[in-house]
Amino acid sequence: MPPFKSPVIVINVALLFAAASAAPLNVVMIGVDGCHPDWVTEAHTPNLVRLANQGIMGHMTPVFPTLTFPSQFSIVTGLYPDHHGIVANEFYDPKEHASWTYRNDNLAAEPRWWSGVPIWAVAKTQGLPTAVANWPTSRVQFQGTFPDHFVETFTPKYSAEQAARDTLRWIDQMREEKPDKPFLALMYIDEVDRVGHRPGPKSNEMAAVLERIDGVIGEVVQALEKRSLMDTTAILVVSDHGMTQLSDQRRAELGDLVDMALIERHFEYVSMVQIWPKDGCLEDVYRQLKAKQTDSTFRVYLKQDLPDRLRYKVNRRIAPIVVMSAPGFSILVPGVLKKWGGSVNEYGAHGYDNAYPEMTSLFIARIPGSKRAWMSNSHTDRQARLMPFDSVHVHNLLARLLGVAPAQPNDGTSALIDQVL
């Protein structure tokens, strides 16, 4: 699927904020990490299908790289990674002379690493109550503030069921604290991504976890119905990327492609490798990799030569050399294959080019008074097709629904608002 291309512009806040005659809505957004939109119709997910039938479902193009932290932060800020600075799940900053990784919770939460303003900080600074259940970056202080309610430590052990319980409890508290204000609640679920990585997206376990997560989302919807909130609440379900299955027949080890002695540091692997060569070694590293690239395995780029459509070549944290794997091909750094038991057959991965269909993100929105559209005309003759769009446009839609001015600057436009509202 070709990426949806949008120009870099400073959006007209007046047009986005001029809202509409409709009153602001509460917003509940559920992020299902690693969920491809096709899985909703392939698995048993009656609650997600019900939300889609009552509203809108479509293909959303994630940002590149299609990794969790860059993509999740782009959804909530409306910025491409080139602009918000989280250019991968792990990276090096030459100005700071330091590396960042989401695995170090204290380091990851330092505000100096993050640019942009997420939707919960936008809403809170404009007087709205906010709650964020384990969404990546929610433990970072933006504009001197945290969400009113949040999980202080990002943890994969935080279950979907716990996220649902906390979210509903916080919704009740926010309604008591500011009964005259719309509320914003974000809830993050990572179990689909975990199963997608192992045993993989085509496993029986994937079907089982999708059914379970669908049940949790159904419980949240039922709780909102019980509280008589469905007519005043927009419910969105989004994902940050898809997933593809790996194979031992399509893999290579980085040490077989380039002399590792020429490399100072490298980050990420499988789908994308960022390489910082040692001083004076850039041309040699690039030449060695270039000699072994093919369309079916990987492509190597100097930073400045990365395709413009990726919006990924300006930030200082992007490495001088970027290796992009073909979909399903894996490049393994030293030690990984042994760690994985000598085989990648039971693993899935993401981080690939966002133009690949396997990387497509999920978007479902049930918005009172909005248009209805499905991702394919085959589902019903009454519904119009929702055209693919970039995930950076979600921020402006959320701001519009809440009745607040969006963050400035941001890379989003009214592209999604025009389709949905």
From TrEMBL:
Pfam families reported in the protein's UniProt record: Phosphodiest
Any coiled-coil regions, as ranges: none
Cleavable signal peptide: 1-22
GO MF terms, alphabetically ordered: hydrolase activity
Top-level taxonomic group: Eukaryota
Family annotation (PANTHER family): BIS(5'-ADENOSYL)-TRIPHOSPHATASE, ECTONUCLEOTIDE PYROPHOSPHATASE/PHOSPHODIESTERASE
Record's keyword terms, sorted: Signal
Name under which the protein is recorded: Alkaline phosphatase family protein
